[in-house]
Design a protein that fits this description.
Two copies of one chain form a homodimer.
Chain A lengths: L2 H10 L5 H12 L9 H8 L3 H10 L5 H15 L1 H9 L8 H17 L3 H13 L3 E5 L4 H12 L5 E3 L7 H6 L6 E5 L8 H10 L3 E7 L3 H5 L4 E5 L11 H18 L1 H20 L1
Parallel strand pairs in A: 1-2, 1-3, 3-4, 4-5
Helix pairs in contact in A: 2-3, 3-4, 6-7, 7-13, 8-13, 9-13, 13-14
Chain A binds a DNA duplex (30 and 30 nucleotides) through α2, α3 and α4.
Chain lengths: ~280, ~280
DNA sequence: ATCTCTATGAAACTAATGTTTCATAATTGC
DNA sequence: GCAATTATGAAACATTAGTTTCATAGAGAT
């Protein structure tokens, strides 16, 4: 991040020599990362000598390149003031600050969607759209998210059911799985021991399996699924964070709603109206 | 930005020597900017020698510090441009892109924690720590999150119960509420019509109410609660987004675990061990 | 065409960074 | 208490980075 350097360059651009303008253009083109390189490398990338680079920064008013870097660091610290203020005043959780928690959650979300291929999301959406029934499964801690997913999808379409609630009836439920159905599996480490045999059995029903899991489980679960949407779940403690997974569920519902169009939204409106009517009767 | 370095540190933390842990802690505390400093300076900041720093990075699997910096640059390049590429090529959901979805989620998270007062989080944590029993309530769509919250807290302490599951038994459950208990309420708009009378009744039990809700409901629910932790829930459709609320639940659990200390973590370990044993018997 | 001035790169010099080696202190096991 | 092992920092060494100086090329003015 080099905002103030960029501003100085912009203010002085016409007064720069040709070599200096080469440097200036490079910095304007790569504002975010150029200062992570040493000046020697910046000069090389711009196609000028080290001497020209040194004179360039001096021409802009800096005493030397170290001053440029120090200014950029100060600017970075100042850009996110809430993090610093939170970090300083915030409650310490697990030895970390609220700011650190937020940072990690933001990174989990960013990396999750950074790496999400649109064709993977589309494939998952298509499977859901075409399925006569959707079975949602989440074991242990993942059950809450499974319920959330089921509710999100049930608002938009019929035939969305939860598996594994009363585990004593799981076998009966598995017997109900049919071809063309979709199993929406939500699972984070540590994975339930029964998961693999359950998935192996489920596949004999010739249904499709869409799995939401963490990055580390991607390869393993890819073998047992038709589509895997991986999430980043890094945390400071208490097992994996499911914030990114919650957001992926939401995106999947949004994506389905967009594909299904008016009928999905109409269903959601109907359900809302039913609720209002039921509550009026209470 | 040093996400992968951070993950490597987290995976290996217990195997690091004391000097290496000093470096590790510094990097965890200052993930965003620490790699803008040379390794010599990082060593100085951590209070170790340059030799220790060099061995530390090698211990983590890097051939040298230059490789650490190169990886961080690559990561930054991979994180920044994707928003543009996703926005241009990504699946359109509800008229918005994956990039827009991510942006909105990031903003929800950022604003939620930016506005979170540490004293409010501490007050909620204290109430939970001191309560003989915690009742968790989420109606309708919020039920999934309520289950998630209950599971997170039940791993850390006894006496965490879910309200409102079989609504026909709700009256019986409400009769069980006692003084000094805490009701952890999770509710987003549209709020269930029964919520207000339910809360009014609950207060006659002289228990404390900790409410997680959206910003818009803050004033209204503040009158009925002891502590309110508001979340930003902006979305493009399908009602409010609960990604930030999921993360607040997680932070609350982390905060409680930090306060309760060893006993909470021990309980979590015990539960994990029980699960392993039960699964081995399956 | 020539002279003056400016821009520039090569080279020299200085400074800083990073890695490796070695000696010592601390820790662990018997 | 002692020996063996490991961790660590100081120092040596190697490499890179950054600044300054000097020589040259190019541009502009006459």
């Amino acid at each position: 991040m080099a905002s103030r350097l960029v501003l100085r360059i912009q203010e002085n651009y016409d007064r720069l020599t040709a070599g200096e303008q080469k440097l200036a253009q490079l910095i304007l083109d790569r504002q975010d990362d150029i200062l992570t390189f040493p000046a020697t490398e910046i000069a090389r990338l711009a196609g000028v000598s080290k001497a020209t680079a040194a004179r360039f920064f001096q021409h802009l008013g800096y005493s030397d390149f170290n001053e440029v870097k120090a200014q950029a660091r100060e600017e970075r610290d100042r850009t996110a003031p809430y993090e610093m203020s939170l970090a300083q005043s915030g409650q310490v959780a697990m030895g970390r600050t609220i700011g650190a928690h937020l940072d990690l959650e933001l990174k989990n979300l960013t990396r999750t969607f950074e790496e999400m291929r649109s064709d993977t999301l589309a494939a998952a959406t298509d499977l859901i759209a075409d399925a006569p029934r959707i079975w949602v499964l989440g074991l242990g801690l993942d059950e809450g998210l499974a319920r959330y997913a089921r509710l999100q999808l049930a608002r938009l379409r019929h035939g969305v059911l939860l598996l594994g609630i009363g585990q004593s009836a799981l076998a009966e439920e598995l017997a109900m799985l049919g071809p063309k159905d979709v199993l929406l599996l939500i699972t984070l480490p540590p994975h339930a021991a029964m998961l693999k045999p359950l998935l192996s059995y489920a596949r004999t029903s010739r249904l499709s399996i869409v799995t939401l899991t963490d990055r580390g489980s991607l390869l393993e679960l890819q073998r047992l699924s038709d589509v895997v949407l991986p999430c980043h779940v890094a945390s400071f403690g208490l097992g994996p964070s499911n914030t990114a997974l919650a957001s992926v569920i939401r995106l999947l519902a949004l994506s389905y709603a967009a594909k299904a169009g008016a009928s999905a939204l109409q269903r959601s409106d109907i359900i809302a109206a039913i609720k209002e009517e039921i509550m009026d009767m209470s």
